[in-house]
Amino acid sequence: MKNISPGKSKNHNHIIARNDLQKTAKHNESISSTIVKTFDEAWDCFTPPYIQTLTLAMTRTFLMCLLIVFYLLFTTKLSGQSRIDILTVSGAVGMPSAYQQPLYGKATESNLLINLKIPIKFNEKTIWYNDFTYSGFNVTNDLEVRPTEYLTAMRMHGIILQTGIVQKLNDRNGFQLLAVPRYMSDFKGSDSKNWQLGGIGLYEHRYHNRLLMRYGALYNQELFGPLLVPLVYLDWQINDKWSIVGLMPINLKVNYKVNEYLTAGFSHFGFITTYKLGQAEFKGDYVERNSIDETLFARWNTRGNFFIEVRFGYSLSRVYEQYDESEKMDFRLSVVRFGDDRTPKNVNFDNGFITSLRLVYSLPIQ
Questions:
Q1: Count of domains forming the chain
Q2: Domain assignment present for 110
Q3: By C-alpha distance, which of 69, 8, 75, 84 is closest to 254?
Q4: How many other β-carbons are positioned within 10 Å of the β-carbon of residue 49?
Q5: How far is residue 161's CA from residue 17's CA, in Å, rounded to a whole number?
Q6: 186-202 pLDDT per residue, tens
Q7: Is residue 57 part of a domain?
Q8: How far apart are alpha carbons 143 and 153 in whole angstroms?
């Protein structure tokens, strides 16, 4: 199976969509995919051998955020303005990482992300939200002899649409219902199995003018079977310098406003996604990609509504696993798997450092 701009939400109809989901997407923050206030970071599930690593990483992130929140809460007067990232173009690359035995060599991963949001306001209470994301992953290597029974070099493409209603019920409550169709492929053949259908539902409650939360779930029919992920969205403007925004477990950003032109902080992005293979020798197989990216970022307002954002950090639990199309599991609830007896065909490469550059066109929310 799959951004949000820092600041205080002044419009309850504002949506953050982020997700695109398949055990692949890496940053993207994308399959810029998934729900309300900035979409670009997206989604987070892992295989059993990595559950311990995932749990530890997420626990540390959560505790760090809590410490920042309770230390800074009420320390300064609140002021700020929310923004929505209308267009994001991002390129990311990982440092070469060694393959696991018995392969000897290194793999390099790169990613291109394009995200476009088009919210259409019907009235003061209703918005028709549209979020289009393309995310492409490319893996190259320096292997002198490549195995013929499974993939090593690969190009995977995800096209994700999030569309639906964002409804405000009153000053404090609302909901979001989004359909999320996806086309996941290596672009070397196409059939009905390249298409996946999912959805997102969120209930919204504003606790006060600095804290907005949403609760719900994401469902997607992955190539390994049904996936259901509980979601919690947090938009907390702590003071005029610090804010925390994110849709966990997909994405989270801790923002520090240095000045009017520069914001820096910490970014978390996790995503799982599956891709149908079309090339003749592997036709019918699918690739599941998992990763969790922990990065530091700096975002500059270069001119008007244009921003440049750079990120540098480390990719944890990064996995590309190739399976026969018959290999399924009964059900997956976030990181918990039911009836998973699958055996991957391929050999993976290690985790490693990653860096990315983003160009963003962002508009203020009045």
A1: 1
A2: yes
A3: 69
A4: 9
A5: 10
A6: 999 888 889 999 999 99
A7: yes
A8: 10
